[in-house]
Amino acid sequence: MRDGPRLAAVIEVLEAIGATDRPADRVLDRYLKDRRYIGSGDRGMIANRVWAVQRRRARLDWWIHKAGKGLQRDARGRVLADVALIDGADVARIAELFDGSRHAPTAVTRDESDALRRLVGRSLDHPDMPPAVQAECPNWLWPRMQAVFGDDVDLAVRTLGEEASFDLRVNPLAGAGRPAVIAELAVASVPAEPTPLSPLGLRLDRRRPVDRMPAFKDGRIEVQDEGSQIAAALVGAQPGQLVVDYCAGAGGKSLALAADMANKGRLLLFDVSKSRLDRAAVRLRRGGVNNAERRPLVEGDKSVKRLAGKVDRVLVDAPCTGTGTWRRNPDAKWRYDADALAEITKVQRTILERAAALVKPGGRLVYVTCSVLTDENEQVVDGFLAETTSFKALPVAEVWAATVGASGGGACPSDGAYLRLSPHRHGTDGFFVAVLERGYSPGSVDSA
């Protein structure tokens, strides 16, 4: 595949990502699956450019604006600017790549050529760029990031834009132990080392085709960020308990919960998306989980209400803006604005209240997001606690010692009420975890 057709494919994928709410990685996977004639080497180059353009979008848009009339802040304009600024191509070379021939992008226009001349010879970074642009952060989010990270804001947000580590979780249900899996991967020339916090985590040297590995096929390992592993461990699920994963999605944390339960008791997976639960079924089966039930959340379904006040542990992995996952989903930062954030926090509060109604006296509700924003984390939990006497927040270090620490994990990185993880400090995705315990006296949340 020549360079021109590869760039045309990149533009098509970026356009498809911008036209849907589906995750970018799934859009890219679908595009490549529908075009099996594209070779593996070309697939890698297409994917790398797609992710790179997404990670450089703010700076590319700044240059496009600076270049004046001719380039648009769209998929084509960003790829043109990327070829000029990153590849160092001159206008003549760009015209060869964008020549309108079969499978190549349409030919560059005169206006595009004029604009590109203003970019040729420039580097991507420029001292005149505002801090938010330099850090690849939407302007409306920058003040919120400053409020969260303070003097570390530039480092924190830039790290959120870097490529993520590639983490695995060893599955105890399959009889897997971390040392044995590390040794097995080493034989296959796949370097892996223990994660510093999670007692079941492995960190590979880079992204690998795990689905081809025997350890994955027989359920001994699963792809899961270390932060996500920690969030599931803090639930403290025990054998014989009734545990609910209220926003289960494709079941990543459910797999970890089932392992902590040693397949004993009942694990209920709820989600509004049946397709996500169907994907979870495949993973649960591969992981050897046999105590789990999947239930789509349907308005008016009385099965959820029948669980009121009966559940030992409820995990709420709340829908959020995903600011903590920008390393994996760089497109996510451009999908939201302040109005969308306000709507999401309303949904989070509603979900939290409904899930709280399921918790029995002495049981726990664990609220988790993969966001770093205070709006979606402390403000939601503190607002909930301010309006109920039924729940209290447990110090996270106390919960950590009884769960992660007791299983051989690293030291708790927080001594406050809640846990915050971030890539620049902990090497994980950005996560927030609050562990709330229900008391034995009745409270206002009973009718939630």
Please tell me about this protein's structure:
The protein is of the alpha/beta class and 448 residues long. It has 20 helices and twelve strands. It has helices spanning 3-18, 24-33, 40-55, 57-67, 75-85, 91-97, 110-117, 131-134, 142-149, 153-160, 178-187, 214-217, 226-233, 252-260, 274-286, 302-305, 338-356, 378-386, 396-402, 423-426, and strands at residues 166-170, 192-194, 201-204, 221-223, 242-245, 266-271, 292-296, 311-317, 359-369, 391-393, 419-421, 431-438. Strands 5, 6, 7, 8, 9, 10, 11 and 12 form an eight-stranded mixed beta sheet that branches. It has a four-stranded antiparallel beta sheet with strand order 2-3-1-4. The longest helix has 19 residues, at 338-356.
- The helix/strand class is alpha/beta
Shape field: globular
Q: How many distinct beta strands?
A: 12
- Count of DSSP H/I helices: 20
Strand content: 5-15%
Mean pLDDT: 94
Task: Report Rg.
Answer: 24 Å
Secondary-structure blueprint:
Elements lengths: L2 H16 L5 H10 L6 H16 L1 H11 L7 H11 L5 H7 L12 H8 L13 H4 L7 H8 L3 H8 L5 E5 L7 H10 L4 E3 L6 E4 L9 H4 L3 E3 L2 H8 L8 E4 L6 H9 L5 E6 L2 H13 L5 E5 L5 H4 L5 E7 L20 H19 L2 E11 L8 H9 L4 E3 L2 H7 L16 E3 L1 H4 L4 E8 L10
Parallel strand pairs: 5-6, 5-8, 6-7, 8-9
Antiparallel strand pairs: 1-3, 1-4, 2-3, 9-12, 10-12, 11-12
Helix pairs in contact: 1-3, 4-5, 9-10, 13-14, 17-18
Summed up, what is this model?
The chain is α/β, with parallel strands linked by helices and 448 residues long. Helix content is 42%, strand content 14%.
